[in-house]
Amino acid sequence: MQELESAGLDLSQVQAAQEVIAKVDPNREMQKLAKLRIETLIFPEQGYPKLLKELPDAPGLLYIRGKILPEDEIALAVVGSRKFTSYGQRAVEEIVYPLAKNQVTIISGLALGIDAIAHHVALEAKGRTIAVLGCGLDEVYPVNNIRLADKIIASGGAIISEFPLKTASFRSNFPLRNRIIAGMSLGTLVVEGALESGSLITARAAIDYNREVFAVPGMIFSETSQGPNRLIQMGAKLITSSSDILEELDIPKRQGYVKSSEIIPDSREEEILLKLLGKPILVDSLIRQSRLEPALVNSTLVMLEMKGMVANLGGTSYVIKGKLKENPKS
């Protein structure tokens, strides 16, 4: 428990991790994961999705097939009805294709209908796409989309879940899945959905996380348009083209920031500490491993945090916020 707490997990996340550990044989589980080429990410270790770290209820553990990359910080969630119309399909094609071409990662839930269309369109644009499942990664649901999941992984994208292997697709899992979809994205686009659909649950999660909500308007007599139309009445931004989203999220500027997020130390002390901050570490350990004076370590950490180069994960735990540029002379 102390090791989990020192990694930066809060009490609820520690308890959740302990419950998972109590239910499975860790060694056997790791063997299964390796066989299926599934990796794990523990909050808040390096590589854990940056936007997801901001959630008050971020998953303590993520299972991943494929790769999550730094550029996936520029992501849009696209969700909608399983019972889509030709209008909804065309809206996804017209809006998502240019976004994927503009290096916006498309995140959805691999469900039948709008979700699957969004993944397919992103793949057609040779862009990145990530699917979040409401079951274990060895139980891809729906089974009709198993080949789609394989295509996403083969393209360089990923399928992810917070649920252990052999977890079935229980109805109660999907609101939890939807919060991850919203939490990994700068905004959520709703394309068709009834008033009580899962799409609106995802939109509500986006609102709770202070993320943007976009909606494609539809005919007032269509049941599948009731959800997006209601969201627009509540303040969601009405979307008619990809440029609406690119401008609203200021994507070009954000992409420039991500590309320039390579960390360059300004002093020998900063370089020493940054090399040790590749994964979360406590200040006491940092002092011991760096062999620098405690006062110098503390003052350097303050400067690094002010420069946006490191993040305080709570208490006295720190981690680097980008990739350290290698010094050819070192």
Automatic annotation (TrEMBL):
Smf/DprA SLOG domain: residues covered: 41-249
Residue intervals of the DprA winged helix domain: 265-315
Pfam families linked: DNA_processg_A, WHD_DprA
GO biological process: DNA-mediated transformation
Family as reported in the entry's similarity comment: Belongs to the DprA/Smf family.
Protein known as: Protecting protein DprA protein
